[in-house]
From TrEMBL:
Entries under InterPro entries matching the protein: Rhs_assc_core, T6SS_VgrG/RHS, TcC-like_repeat, YD, YwqJ_deaminase
Domain of life: Bacteria
Protein name: RHS repeat protein
Pfam families listed in its UniProt record: TTc_toxin_rep, YwqJ-deaminase
Length: 966
């Protein structure tokens, strides 16, 4: 990879004099024209109080439009959001700050006025003032229709029977859009031990809508259908799950190692004997999987790059002595650029083939532009592959052995300046499989559809609902949505004078799918396929001509280490070609896509390879029937008969590389609400349809996934986080009490008295943050050490009283930064941020450090030499130029906590041991008080060793680290 493409293409954040981001500048280059650079500017505006009022991406900004506009109340709560992708939403809270009413799905008419014809009003009802104020109901009303109570909550009382089941104060009955979810008992740790799901009567009919009217529970309980599906759970004292028994009586058992990580898993089918699913799992010190062995005897090993800890190898094999014979089944090798973008994936278990004067190597290569968007991909596909659409290609049966099975392909991707994928060009010269897929994007939003639906940008918005949901999948295939913007029904085949084919879905109160029904007319009869989703279980039935022809239980094993495991248990209609109680192990790649599928004996059921944005490039199987029962494919998600992938909160259309609806999380993943994984599907992943995450382990795009894993595996961290939160609240409460007493004094007395008070509102503004740490010694005889009370030390960056050794950089911001565009920088000059207002330069490091030492001494501590060295290294790595918003490097509360950890004398542990067993917490004292406070740029650069920051790091620091690695 040539780094020149990325040279002098920084991400520039422009701040106003209030420290608010007003522009995000990015610089775009394409590998085909590396000498041409264009500037992409995203703009933001704020009101006089500093609250965001509008944001515009580069494309819409040039057209004089904005992506989002916001209206806030005096406290900064957003009251009205107008998004060009997802329409207008109004949200109001009550006096207690609880959701009271939202109005969503408000569109914009052609004349620019609001169109409320599809609007949905949702209101929350709560308990009376004599009770805790918990929600008791949610009412929804679509414009022009009657109001419905779509959810009701019933809370347990304080009776001895309820206490015996730990139900006191718990929500025991949740009537939702799917039916009733009932909690029968709860563990002391809060984990539900027994839950029962009951569906609505006639839940298969998509026209049936939940309406929990009335106050009589006995009447409401007649609305769900007869019977229910109960799932049982047992846990240990920490809340970790030990066993689960699904609604059909199948039992899963799990075991953990001393770090709380999964080490084994077993399954016992109802009336059967226990079988091993996960035989063993081993991990590195960082919690990364190193080796896993499953019940089929197959072993998977993981290899990581020592310098970055990125995953570079996944090898799955039958080891020596295996009953089916030793064989390497899959050997995936990964290569990255310095930033973490995947450049190459090869499968060394597959052989190189030759066909029609071409060499077909089992590898994929990827090229990105300077914005890290995938622009080119090469790989192999089946020689009989056709144009990608919503249908799967025919599998090669049996597993191929000749060289005519595969051919090379190249795909190129084109995007507009807002990140919309506008064209996919596919080329496979040896077979003539050449085609182009064009996507038409609206000229007023980021909504887009295949050009087969319309080629007119001004006509795209008419193909979406007011809330940003696509209304047609393919020409003639209509999509129907619920008022909550959940996909309700797809009509793949429309018939005149006869019943249409359809696939419909039903969701629970959390918008998670719990039922899928597919109805197809087959000549003179109708076939209905039904899937009910329950914890750890899928119940699949097929009815043809009024007679049940198949009944299948799919036991979905939970976390299974190196694979997804599903056990197929037929109670009726098992295909003759398949064995009963078939165990299927699906081995994932880096993005979670199911490639290699093995049976319980370690033999291959199927092998599948994917195009970068989804779609199947290679599909081979030992039988077509076996291949038909594979439902989990690209990105580890279920593929429906429509060709759509269900992610949890959204549906994805792989042939277009776009989501079917706008992001329900709003701008959490950027201003473009339809963009898939930031246009880098080989290096990023979306777990549930809301937020993108980097896949490389060195510098994850979000640190929260690592922190969440630590919290999950170490309950002590959760406990001390709660304790630390209480300590922060004590500081805030003390400041409130002191402030109240000061108000009673005369001004002169007030000023004198406040000097002796540690916490007042004025002092909190200077302290800004509160930090503490937990140190968990490795020795069994030592108790954990917890200390809090660290607050920021004073360090001025004002013009009148600048911190010693510092010079402010006060150059005026150029209107469009043209003087600093990449073309005007020398090739040898690496961009540094001194061209931006809002930075300072440490001109005399020794004087700077000396003053920091004085402040530490004044606070009763001594700056440790290790921390001093880290501060100096941080200055050097930033060319002594630091953002003013991050304050004086070394004075923040969390760095003081770090200093205290290293300076501890009540232990003989080494510095490395002290740090690796320490966890730092930081919370806000101003603004969103008592909330976790991510470490700033300076703190993230100083606290960069073995210690753990449990409250996160700022995203900008992560981005800077990535940029520096180029």
């Amino acid at each position: 990879m040539s780094t020149s493409l990325f040279s002098n293409t920084p991400t520039v954040t422009v701040l106003d004099n209030r420290g608010l981001t007003v522009r995000d500048n990015a610089y775009y280059r394409h590998p085909d024209s590396p000498d041409v650079t264009s500037e992409r500017i995203t703009r933001h505006q704020y009101d006089a109080r500093g609250f965001l009022t509008q944001s515009a991406d580069p494309r819409l900004n040039e057209a004089g439009l904005v992506n989002f506009s916001f209206l806030t109340d005096l406290a900064g709560n957003v009251l009205r959001t107008h998004g060009v992708d997802n329409g207008i939403t109004v949200a109001l809270n009550d006096a207690a700050g609880r959701p009271f009413m939202t109005v969503s799905n408000i569109g914009t008419a052609d004349d620019g006025t609001e169109d409320a014809s599809q609007a949905m009003t949702r209101t929350w009802q709560y308990e009376g003032v004599s009770l805790p104020g918990r929600p008791v109901g949610i009412t929804e009303q679509v414009s022009g229709e009657a109001a419905r109570i779509t959810e009701r909550f019933v809370w347990a009382g304080n009776s001895p029977e309820e206490k015996a089941l730990n139900l006191a104060g718990q929500c025991v009955s949740h009537y939702d859009t799917a039916g009733l979810m009932q909690t029968d008992s709860v563990a002391l740790t809060g984990v539900p031990l027994s839950v029962t799901r009951r569906l609505l009567k006639d839940a298969d009919n998509p026209d049936i809508v939940a309406d929990w009217q009335g106050t009589d529970a006995s009447v409401r309980n007649t609305l769900p259908g007869d019977g229910g599906f109960t799932t049982l759970t047992t846990t240990d004292a920490t809340g970790a799950v030990l066993t689960t028994t699904d609604a059909q009586g199948n039992r899963q058992r799990v075991a953990y190692d001393v770090a709380g990580l999964l080490s084994g898993r077993w399954l016992t089918l109802k009336d059967g004997t226990e079988q091993v699913i996960v035989k063993s799992l081993t991990y590195s010190a960082a919690g990364q999987k190193l080796r896993g062995e499953h019940g089929n005897g197959v072993v998977t090993t993981y290899e990581y790059e020592p310098q970055t800890q990125r995953l570079v190898g996944i090898k799955t094999e039958r080891p020596a002595g295996h009953a089916a014979g030793a064989k390497v089944l899959q050997d995936l090798r990964y290569e990255y650029d310095p930033v973490g973008n995947v450049l190459k994936i090869s499968n060394d278990a597959e052989e190189t083939r030759f066909w029609r004067n071409q060499k077909v190597v089992p590898e994929n290569r990827y090229t990105c532009d300077s914005l890290y968007r995938l622009v080119s991909a090469t790989g192999r596909e089946m020689a009989n592959a056709g144009r990608q659409g919503c249908n799967l290609p025919s599998a090669t049966i049996p597993l191929p052995a000749d060289s005519s099975a595969y051919t090379n392909y190249t795909r190129t991707y084109t995007y507009d300046s807002a990140g919309n994928l506008t064209q996919i060009s596919h080329s496979a010269p040896a077979t003539g499989n050449n085609y182009t897929t064009d996507i038409t994007v609206s000229d007023r939003s980021n909504r887009g559809v295949l050009s087969t639906l319309t080629e007119n940008p001004s006509g795209v918005d008419a193909l979406f609902t007011a809330g940003g949901q696509q209304k047609q999948l393919q020409p003639g295939q209509n999509l129907v949505w619920t008022p909550r913007n959940e996909l309700l029904k797809v009509t793949p085949v429309v018939r005149d004078g006869s019943t249409d084919d359809r696939e419909s879905y039903r969701y629970d109160g959390g918008s998670q799918r719990c039922l899928k029904v597919s109805v197809q007319n087959t000549g003179s009869s109708t076939q209905t396929q039904r899937t009910l989703y329950l914890p750890g279980l899928e119940l699949r039935t097929t009815v043809s001509g009024g007679k049940e022809t198949e009944s299948l239980e799919v036991i979905t094993v939970g976390e299974a280490g190196c694979a997804q495991v599903r056990v197929l248990h037929w109670t009726a209609g098992r295909p003759a070609e398949l064995t009963g109680d078939q165990t299927r192990y699906s081995y994932d790649n880096l993005t979670g896509s199911s490639g290699l599928e093995l049976d319980g004996d370690g033999n291959i059921i199927s092998m599948e390879e994917y195009y970068p944005y989804g779609g199947t490039a290679v599909l081979t199987a030992r039988s077509q029937t076996g291949a038909d029962y594979k439902t989990v494919r690209y990105s580890g998600k279920e593929r429906d008969a429509t060709g759509l992938y269900y992610y949890g909160y959204r549906y994805y259309q792989p042939w277009a590389g776009r989501w079917l609806g706008a992001d329900p999380a709003g701008t959490a993943d950027g201003l473009n609400l339809f963009r898939m994984v930031r246009n880098n599907p080989v290096s990023m992943k979306d777990n549930d349809g809301r937020v993108t995450e980097w896949l490389d382990l060195a510098y994850p795009h979000k640190s929260f996934n690592v922190v969440a894993l630590m919290y999950k595996n170490n309950p002590m961290l959760k406990l001390y986080h709660r304790i630390f939160t209480q300590e922060t609240k004590k500081i805030l409460d003390e400041a409130e009490i002191n402030e109240s007493s000061l108000k009673k004094l005369k001004p002169n007395k007030r000023q004198k008295t406040s000097r002796d008070m540690k916490y007042t509102k004025t002092k909190l503004k200077n302290y800004a943050a509160h930090a503490g740490f937990l140190n968990v010694p490795s020795g069994s005889g030592e108790t954990p050490r917890f200390k809090s009370g660290f607050v920021n030390l004073p360090g001025s960056l004002s013009n009148k009283n600048t911190f010693p050794g510092v010079r402010l950089i006060d150059e005026k911001i150029k209107r469009r930064f043209k003087d600093y565009s990449p073309e005007k920088l020398k090739e040898s000059t690496k961009w540094r941020p001194e061209t931006s207002l809002g930075y300072y330069r440490v001109e005399n490091v020794d004087i700077f450090i000396s003053e920091i030492k004085k402040l530490y001494a004044a606070s009763g501590s001594e700056l440790h030499e290790v921390v001093e060295r880290r501060i100096r290294n941080h200055l050097a790595s930033n060319n002594n130029i630091l953002p003013r918003m991050a304050g004086i490097a070394g004075l923040h509360a969390e760095v003081q906590a770090l200093n205290h950890i290293i300076s501890m004398t009540d232990t003989e542990a080494s510095v490395a041991s002290k740090l690796s067993s320490s966890y730092i917490y930081t919370q806000r004292l101003v603004g969103a008080r008592n909330e976790d406070f991510p470490a700033c740029h300076n703190c993230s650069g100083i606290i960069n060793g073995l210690e753990n920051i449990m409250t996160g790091r700022v995203e900008g620091h992560t981005r800077l680290i990535r940029r520096k690695s180029i």
